[in-house]
Amino acid sequence: MIKAIDTKKAPGAVGPYSQGMQAGNMIYTSGQLPLNPETMQLTSGIGPATKQSLDNCEAILKEAGASLEDVIKVEIFLKDMNAFGDMNAVYSEYFSVHKPARACVQVARLPMDAEVEIQMVAALIK
């Protein structure tokens, strides 16, 4: 079973992709920019932007019946690696006990000139 995940609690796709996909017990979120789902405005400042991107990912997971506790891998794309400490401080509020595998890289540019983009992989094993 493969199905698209769609929720109003995360920003709608700004291109030809789904917010997330579920394949069996695996859930894959698309990269989430720090867009407010109600206004579709970009959140600025690395702390608030990280929080918004994580909230967007969490909303997609919840729509599929998962939670942050089900996340097995997180990929973070930063506009500036100098923001790593501030991003990591917010990230650790979401993943303090449960610590999924993670990659964090600096990229040349993100859509809409965002400061951060985050995507997750989760497994529903309950």
Strand content: 25-35%
CA-atom Rg in angstroms:
14 Å
The count of DSSP E runs of length 2 or more, i.e. the number of strands, is 6
Largest sheet: 6 strands, mixed
Element-by-element helix/strand order:
EEEHEHEE
Oligomer: single chain
Widest sheet: strand ordering: 1-2-3-6-4-5
CA-CA gap between termini: 17 Å
Question: Helical content, roughly?
Answer: 10-25%
Mean of residue pLDDT values = 97
Protein structure class: alpha+beta
Q: Report the total helices.
A: 2
Uncertain runs with pLDDT below 50, 5 residues or more?
none
Shape: globular
Task: Give a quick summary of the entry.
With 126 residues, the protein is an alpha+beta fold. The protein contains two helices and six strands. It has a six-stranded mixed sheet, covered by helices on one side.
What does this structure look like?
- This protein has 126 residues and is an alpha+beta fold.
- It has two helices and six strands; from the N terminus they run βββαβαββ.
- A six-stranded mixed β-sheet has the order 1-2-3-6-4-5, with helices on one face.
- Strand 4, helix 2 and strand 5 form a beta-alpha-beta unit.
- The model has no long low-confidence stretch (mean pLDDT 97).
List the helices and strands and how they pair.
Layout lengths: L1 E4 L14 E4 L2 E4 L16 H18 L7 E8 L5 H11 L6 E6 L9 E8 L3
Parallel strand pairs: 4-5
Antiparallel strand pairs: 1-2, 2-3, 3-6, 4-6
Feature tags:
single chain; 126 residues; alpha+beta; six-stranded mixed β-sheet; 27% strand; globular
